[in-house]
Structures are given as structure tokens and as C-alpha cells.
Amino acid sequence: MANKGPSYGLSRDVQSKIEKKYDDELEERLVEWIVAQCGAGVGRPERGRLGFQVWLKNGVVLSELVNSLYPEGSKPVKIPKPPPTMVFKQMEQVAQFLKAAEDYGVVKTDIFQTVDLFEGKDIAAVQRTVMALGSLAVTKNDGHYRGDPAWFMKKSQEYKRDFSDSQLKEGKNVIGLQMGSNKGASQAGMTGYGRPRQIIS
């Protein structure tokens, strides 16, 4: 990682907009869930964006979080002991979490980039990923979620309908409203709009 100096002009405007997306109230809720899900052993971060980033930066807390959503014996991420101290090992650990989160069902658009967390470019994106993971865990309702279910919104699920052959046959006789109606007013007897064409000789 190259050390980056202060940004100016448009770069600074863009970065400040990204930083404004960070939600302190959401941070509290996510910290509460991570501690409830993983146990007190993960500790707690200092309040604020920087504290949240430092807490998650080496990828161990995130890996423990995703592992806690799986049954014993099928944990997707291997957590090294002691936690990694080398930069590329920490980034690798975060990348393993991201792969496990995607396998769990988090959509690609909700997943942050490793540099968003590691360099603090977009900590709000990290919040979105953890939020999506929590929502999926509540929706799956497989007994591995710990914490208050009201912390996350359930994702909508498919509502499968099974129609019998006779119901499907009846449906073919119905004229959809997009096609108009074959009852009521008609255009019989109407003439075209506007004045007729004037032919002057």
C-alpha cells in the first residue's frame, strides 16, 4: 500500500460524500449484533468510523462472524492463530470473508472491496455488507442467528403458486386489462378526428 497524502478538489469532494454515508447509529447496532453472534471474545471497537475500521481491519472478527452462521464442522473460513499481522495476510483474510459472504447468499452489489475496509476508503460499504449478511441470517431462520431479529429486515421470499390444469385453462379465456375490454363502450360509428383534408382546385 502506498501512503496517500491529502486529497484536493474533486477527489476531496467525492471522499467527503462517501464519508457522510457512514451511519453511527447503524454502527452501534452492527457492533451489538457481532458481539451477540460471536461472543464477547471479539471485544468492542472504539466509537466512530476509525475505531470500527481498526476493529474489522485484520479480517478475524468478520471471519468469526460468517463462521458463526454455519453449523459446527462446516465453517467456511479458516481463522489463523495468532491473528495475522502482515498486511497481505490481513487482506487475504478479509477476501476470504467476502468469498464466504457471497457463498452465504449476499449479492455482489452489497459486497465491499477489500481496500474499502483496509484503506478506509468506504466504511459505509462495509456496513452495508454486514447489514446484508444480518438480513440474510434473519431470513434463513436456520437457528444459527443470535441477537434481536428486529435489528435487520427480512428479505422478501418467493411465494410459489400451484395452479391446476383447469384453472390454467380458465385463465386463457380472460382478456387482460392491458388489452382493453370487449364489454361496454365501443368505437362503432365514430369518425376520424380533426378536419377532413382540404383539396382546393
UniProtKB/TrEMBL annotation:
Region (Disordered) residue spans: 182-201
Keyword Acetylation carried by entry: yes
Gene3D superfamilies named among the record's database cross-references: Calponin-like domain
InterPro entries named in the record: Calponin-like (IPR050606), Calponin_repeat (IPR000557), CH_dom (IPR001715), CH_dom_sf (IPR036872), SM22_calponin (IPR003096)
Localization per Swiss-Prot or TrEMBL: Cytoplasm
Subcellular location, principal: cytoplasm
Protein family: Belongs to the calponin family.
Protein name per its UniProtKB record: Transgelin
Organism: Mauremys mutica
